[in-house]
Amino acid sequence: MSNLKKTFTSYGKVILLGEHAVVYGSPAFAIPITKLKIETEIKTTAQAGPFIDTAEFQGPLFLLPEKYDGIRFVIETLVAKDQLDTHFEITYHSQIPLERGLGSSASVSYATVNILNDYFELGLTPAEIIELANQAEAINHGSASGLDVATISSEFPVSFVKPQAIVPIKNKLNGFLLIIDTGETGNTREAVAKVRQQVLAETQKKELIDHLGNQARKGIIAWQQQDILAFGKLMDKAQVDLDKFGLATSKIKRIVKIAKKNGALGTKLSGSGLGGIVISLAQTKATAEQIAHAVASHATNIFIEEI
Ligand code: PMV
What we know:
alpha+beta; four-stranded antiparallel beta sheet; binds (3R)-3-hydroxy-3-methyl-5-(phosphonooxy)pentanoic acid; seven-stranded mixed beta sheet; 307 residues
């Protein structure tokens, strides 16, 4: 392997409807966000590694902090399986804020599998790539549904039922989605456990999970029919249900209220909750900008995506 260099671009994602319910076998609906990118590069090194270069860590793989265990798992698995030469370094340049429900960890895992597959010509199939990235996600987040990897590896929004039923939804809704970063880090593992505890203890909470799943089912149909008003209403309903699990922080609740006052068709937390992002639906770019302006002092970042 003489002085070879390869690059791979992977993207972020946003869950539109069905988070948490998807863990229990209901459908979820999520969209890749190509504005949020991770550029990954692999190159040959003079010394044996592997070496890793991220915004926060530069050094040999064996010193990589625990929070990058997903990356470690992917590299160690492929190196051991295929007896790979370890004279390489992988560099990640990410625009995806961490731990916000924007798919950063899935995107890193997916990029790592792809770039090793390409550089070493391993011949992994798309299904094998997704499988390995999902195993890394399970290490990152406990029992992950597989939704994140399914979404970031798709060109289109996806309807997803675990473990692997992925249907691309190719039409546009014809609206604008605000992705509002609260700046608060979420914790998927903790949020999933918090929901599970309630579902096991209270029958009404199991019913709420079924509601969330039904909202995703209806949402996919509304999207296909380009019924933006119905889609917005389902987002609002999902927010009410997610809040009942205690997943909305006071900042999330404030942003939801302000967005509503400023013409949003629907607004909800997205991803695991307990921080992270709020998404809001607007019919026009002007309304989206008005909402962005109104919530700006509560957000660290706002992206507007035409959908
Ligand atoms: O916080 P995120 O974007 O990783 O999303 C978590 C979504 C859950 O449904 C809560 C968990 C899962 O594995 O699907």
